[in-house]
């Protein structure tokens, strides 16, 4: 993949604590990672997203459920829906929370929750040059209900946090599909995420969160960047989604304050 320090980095989609005196502080969770498998197998609010492009072609991304009034919203990257490189919208999109070794994209298309509609960031215009829209690489998807229940009713949800989002301990999760991964397990990077400022990186990626080293590969696009993860709920605070990456670095796109209005619109009852 292209270096994230270039003007435009490669998309990572894939086609196919408190301490008491005298006592040790609890270990951080999740533990620091450069691309390991998630410690407990899966996270119920995070899953595999598959866009059906044609009868014989599908594209894999990652995504996460986000809290909304209607309980039916999932967050991912805008380029998982369409991009300057692939401007045509998918025929259908499906999402499977807590995915693990269930048969790949075909299984998600057959058994996953169907996306009813979506809204990409207002500035995400696939007719424009990628550099000029990269900062808008986020989207919200509205899911169909199952047996009268919403996806949030069944699995729970993460809480959206918009800017300002500063550097800090963060975990990003997703389903990488290219070597040494196979797209069938949830993997993650975790550590001190750095927020790039002007002069540190090309203009298109100013404001992005970065984890380095992070070895996750294609397929993690749209995966959540979480803080304050709660093991009991399988959820945390969503501060960004994976946008672009290189062989040893991953960038997450934080949400501007305007994202609240978009979430309210697609997440209304």
Give the secondary structure arrangement, pairings included.
Layout: E1 10-11, E2 14-15, E3 33-37, E4 46-54, E5 57-65, E6 73-76, E7 92-97, H1 105-111, E8 113-120, H2 130-133, E9 139-143, H3 151-155, E10 159-160, E11 168-174, E12 187-195, E13 209-211, E14 224-230, E15 235-245, E16 250-254, H4 259-266
Parallel strand pairs: 10-15
Antiparallel strand pairs: 1-15, 2-5, 3-12, 4-5, 4-7, 5-6, 6-9, 7-8, 8-9, 11-12, 11-14, 12-13, 13-16, 14-15, 15-16
Overview of this protein structure:
- The chain is mainly beta and 269 residues long.
- It has one domain: Beta Barrel (Thrombin, subunit H), CATH 2.40.10.120.
- It is built from four helices and 16 strands.
- The strands form two sheets. A six-stranded antiparallel beta barrel has the order 11-12-13-16-15-14.
- Strand 5 and strand 6 form a beta hairpin.
- The longest helix has 8 residues.
- The N terminus is likely disordered.
Beta-strand level of the residues, as a percent range? 25-35%
- State the end-to-end CA separation: 41 Å
The overall pLDDT average reads 91
The CATH topology name reads Thrombin, subunit H
The best one-word shape is globular
Q: Count the strands?
A: 16
SSE order in H/E notation? EEEEEEEHEHEHEEEEEEEH
Relative helix content: under 10%
Q: Look at the structure and give the CATH class.
A: Mainly Beta
Oligomeric assembly: single chain
Number of domains: 1
Briefly, what is this?
The protein has 269 residues and is mainly β. It is built from four helices and 16 strands.
């Amino acid at each position: 993949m292209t270096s994230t320090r270039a003007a435009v980095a490669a998309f990572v989609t894939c086609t196919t604590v408190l301490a008491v005196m005298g006592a040790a502080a609890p270990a951080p969770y999740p533990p620091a990672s450069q691309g390991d498998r998630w410690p407990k197998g899966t996270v119920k609010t995070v899953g595999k997203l598959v866009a059906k492009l044609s009868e014989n072609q599908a594209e894999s991304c990652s995504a996460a459920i986000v809290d909304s009034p209607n309980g039916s919203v999932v967050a991912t990257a805008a380029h998982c829906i369409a991009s300057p490189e692939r401007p045509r919208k998918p025929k259908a999109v499906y999402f499977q929370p807590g995915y693990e070794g269930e048969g790949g994209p075909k299984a998600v298309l057959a058994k996953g929750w169907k996306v009813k509609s979506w809204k990409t960031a207002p500035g995400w215009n696939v007719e424009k040059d990628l550099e000029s829209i990269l900062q808008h690489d986020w989207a919200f998807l509205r899911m169909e209900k199952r047996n009268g229940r919403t996806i949030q009713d069944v699995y729970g949800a993460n809480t959206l946090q918009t800017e300002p989002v500063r550097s800090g301990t963060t975990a990003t999760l997703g389903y990488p599909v290219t070597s040494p991964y196979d797209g069938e397990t949830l993997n993650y990077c975790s550590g001190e995420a750095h927020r790039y400022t002007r002069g540190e990186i090309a203009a298109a990626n100013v404001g992005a969160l970065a984890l380095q080293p992070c070895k996750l590969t294609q397929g993690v696009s749209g995966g959540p960047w979480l803080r304050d993860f709660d093991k009991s709920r399988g959820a945390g605070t969503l501060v960004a989604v994976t946008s672009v990456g290189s062989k040893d670095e991953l960038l997450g796109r934080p949400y501007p304050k305007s994202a609240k209005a978009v979430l309210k619109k697609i997440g209304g009852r």
